[in-house]
């Protein structure tokens, strides 16, 4: 058995070409849910869009044995660091990589004086809201203006409002 050498580091410009394929592979998990299977073939974030997150210092990459296997993209809100996308290649899921990426984002948020991590996700998909709840994220009932805007954007992109939720991880 080969030992797993996992590292998480800031994403570099020369990494971005690998990221759309990781997101596509991660989305493959939605094929198991007939109502959401369309997401497996949906649009992914382009390398050019990834480059913007890299330039702002808001992207981190997980490497397993020096190969990219996951990433997290964030954006700074008034008091929180919002997780735009967390993707781990389907073949690498369940190994704690997503947790490590979230921990890296939380560390960045603390260092920049932000009080929490926030995100929007599917309420009933096991590897979405239930996963985040196990990590300490709480459901947000009163949305900040930024989270309200995110939820409205999701609805405009075809995601049923009632299937989604906003979550927050306080960083103390």
TrEMBL record:
Keywords: Acyltransferase, Transferase
PANTHER family associated with the record: PEPTIDYL-LYSINE N-ACETYLTRANSFERASE YJAB
Keyword Acyltransferase on entry: yes
Domain N-acetyltransferase: residue ranges: 6-168
Source organism of this protein record: Enterobacter chinensis
InterPro entries: Acyl_CoA_acyltransferase, GNAT_dom
Name of protein: GNAT family N-acetyltransferase
Signal peptide start-end: none
Pfam families the UniProt entry points to: Acetyltransf_1
């Amino acid at each position: 058995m080969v030992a797993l050498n996992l590292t998480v580091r800031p994403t570099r410009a020369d990494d971005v070409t690998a990221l759309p394929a990781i997101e596509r592979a991660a989305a493959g998990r939605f094929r198991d849910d007939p109502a959401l299977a369309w997401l497996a073939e949906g649009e992914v974030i382009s390398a050019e869009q990834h480059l913007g997150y890299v330039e702002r210092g808001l992207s981190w990459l997980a490497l397993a044995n020096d190969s990219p296997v996951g990433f997290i993209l964030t954006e700074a809100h008034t008091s929180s660091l919002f997780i735009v996308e967390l993707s781990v290649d389907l073949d690498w899921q369940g190994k704690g990589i997503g947790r490590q990426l979230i921990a890296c984002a939380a560390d960045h948020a603390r260092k920049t004086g932000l009080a929490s991590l926030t995100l929007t996700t599917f309420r009933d998909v096991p590897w979405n809201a239930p996963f985040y709840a196990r990590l300490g994220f709480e459901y947000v009932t009163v949305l900040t203006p930024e989270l309200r805007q995110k939820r409205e954007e999701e609805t405009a992109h075809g995601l049923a409002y009632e299937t989604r939720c906003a979550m927050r991880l306080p960083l103390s």
